[in-house]
Amino acid sequence: MPPVRAPKGKLETAKKGTLKRLLKILFKNYKFQLIFSAICIVLYSLGNIASSVFMSVVTNTLESATTGRISPTQAWSSMITTLIVIGIIYIIGMASAYGYNYTMSVTSQRFLNTLRKQMFNHMESLPIKYFDTHPRGDIMSLYTNDIDTIRQLVSQAIPTAFQAGFTVIGAIAAMLLFSPILTVLVIIGSMAMFMNAKTMGGKSAKYFVKQQIATGKVEGNIEESIKGLKVIKVFSHEEKSIEDFDKINDQLCKDSTSANEASNILAPINGNIGNILYVILIVVGVLFIIQGWEINPGLQLVIGDTFSVSYGIGKITYSIIFFFLIACRTFSNNVNNFTQQITFITMGQAGASRIFDLLDEQSETDSGYVTLVNVIKHEDGSLEETSERTRTYAWKHPHKADGTITYTELKGDIVIDDVDFGYNQDQLVLHNVSIYAHPGQRIAFVGATGAGKTTITNLINRFYDIADGKIRYDGININKIKKDDLRRSLGIVLQDTNLFTGTVMENIRYGRLDATDEEVYEAAKIANAYDFITRLPEGFNTMLSGDGANLSQGQRQLLSIARAAVADAPVMILDEATSSIDTRTEKLVQKGMDMLMKGRTVFVIAHRLSTVQDSEAIMVLDHGRIIERGTHQDLINKKGVYYQLYTGAFELE
């Protein structure tokens, strides 16, 4: 097996164009929802700005009434009209806020649902090499932590940033209408806020990417520790496990602290800039009133009988100062709110970048065109394709040269001819391997761990493609056979059993999803699993979870063998299939295995040499080379490595 490498994460920022790509996908699939949300946000923002204007109208009305410029009746009439308008604006604002929040919540969840499906579908298409070289915990974090950052980005950060940005622009436009000189002060203050956001936001951005990577490592460590908890306890390595976790978790803490340190400072600094700006506006405004500074306006906006706005520096009144104080607070809050979204946008970009890395991984390629079909074999030996399950199979081989189609009966004749292979191009693990397995033969592989036994079987089912040489299946180069059809012709029992959450019946039927209940029962009997299954609380309907944790290791292996039996494949690969079974259970299994292997080509990998003695050929491997081959008796007579292993002169490691 190739070594698992650390997850990608050397880049200190998300890939360029990640946000644009995410938004493009989002807009393509949810264009109308986004447009509706944008309209609602605009209405909500305009309502916020308009409410500030009308509050200034109220102030101006009160000022006019107290100075005698208008009568109390006129003041009450103007106040009622203004309050009704403000009430309508607030109602529209509340409806708009509900509209865009609800729409974005639903849209973001549907988008994430689609994205998770797309991720999982693509992940299922990836080659085994990807999973051999990426930690499982890091892959899991894509579906949890990274997906959640995108949820925050889509449902919160983008709408809030858009709303805050539009409100800021609208507020500036309104303030320019009242007093350009005071507006300039506000713009200067906003520039200071954005400079602070750029400095602090840029500083935290790279740490948020590191935080995402560190989170994946922590989740991977937890997943690994849970799976290996029994091993940890058996060897009393709890303290070592805690020490390893603390080291990874401390790194996450360090990266998270660095990321949040800058982003958390951002809001208070901007808030204080807003407070300072608030005070400056009061001082400047009052100074204008006291000094009586005024420039003749170039444009005048009249609202009702009691309120007018002059475009230009004009005469600053208490109502204008009051408007600016409200508008400035709205302005600074939204600037602050906008800059705060930088944190979530940065985290979302980091998560999206990692997810796009998965989606950009190249799917397992398959250029095969030879398929496996059911056939009827006539007395004259001719083969006829049928859609019915006949348990007689043939390779359907279309010939591109002349357009003809030939059928080759699947017999299980496998030839591995002078094969070289390496997980890495510069390091071969198999050298000049040649094996001939005729139909019905049992071929055994023995050798130390790392000798290349499992690698050979991985090449037969094309989990990996060979560097040099050829592998032929019934005379057909396996590169020409579609991978799904090739693997459907192979039954595999691995040393590490993998059971899924579901009933015993469903786990056995996983070998062939269209198998009937009777075929499942028969497969269980072949594997000698029927008796123990019927003694379970609910028999074949007993629910399994946690990889069959409520069963013994031997029972789990028996179910794995039954699953291979129901597949009824003509070629079997047994990778240490009985290594986890006790001697008594092994005897029960061996009888079932003999029935399972009868009439099939079988490749057996075993440490227990007693299980391979009846093999037609035994291959002894050492560092990727076949150093001895022959029957059990032939190898004993040679008194070579196999003889030493069998007699205990030295043991397999």
List the helices and strands and how they pair.
Elements: H1 18-29, H2 31-66, H3 72-125, H4 128-132, H5 136-178, H6 180-227, H7 229-234, H8 238-291, E1 299-303, E2 307-311, H9 318-360, E3 371-377, E4 383-386, E5 393-398, E6 405-409, E7 414-421, E8 430-437, E9 442-447, H10 453-460, E10 468-473, E11 476-477, H11 483-488, E12 490-493, E13 502-503, H12 504-509, H13 517-526, H14 530-534, E14 543-544, H15 553-567, E15 571-575, H16 583-597, E16 601-605, E17 617-622, E18 625-630, H17 632-638, H18 641-647
Parallel strand pairs: 9-16, 9-17, 12-15, 15-16
Antiparallel strand pairs: 1-2, 3-4, 3-5, 5-6, 7-8, 7-10, 10-11, 13-14, 17-18
Helix pairs in contact: 2-3, 2-5, 2-9, 3-5, 5-6, 5-9, 6-8, 6-9, 8-9, 13-15, 15-16, 17-18
**Span from first to last CA?**
16 Å
Helical content stands at 55-70%
Query: Biggest β-sheet, characterized?
Result: 6 strands, mixed
Report the mean per-residue pLDDT as an integer.
Answer: 81
CATH architectural name of the largest domain: Up-down Bundle
* The CATH topology of the largest domain: ABC transporter transmembrane region fold
Count of DSSP strands: 18
CATH domain class name of the largest domain = Mainly Alpha
Could you characterize what this model shows?
By secondary structure, the protein is an alpha+beta fold. The protein has three domains: 18-359, Up-down Bundle (ABC transporter transmembrane region fold), CATH 1.20.1560.10; 371-409, no CATH class; 414-647, P-loop containing nucleotide triphosphate hydrolases (Rossmann fold, 3-Layer(aba) Sandwich). The chain contains 18 helices and 18 strands. The strands form five sheets. A six-stranded mixed sheet has the order 12-15-16-9-17-18, with helices on both faces. The chain has a four-stranded antiparallel sheet with strand order 4-3-5-6. The chain has a four-stranded antiparallel sheet with strand order 8-7-10-11, covered by helices on one side. A hairpin with a 3-residue loop joins strand 1 (299-303) and strand 2 (307-311). It is elongated. The two termini are 16 Å apart.
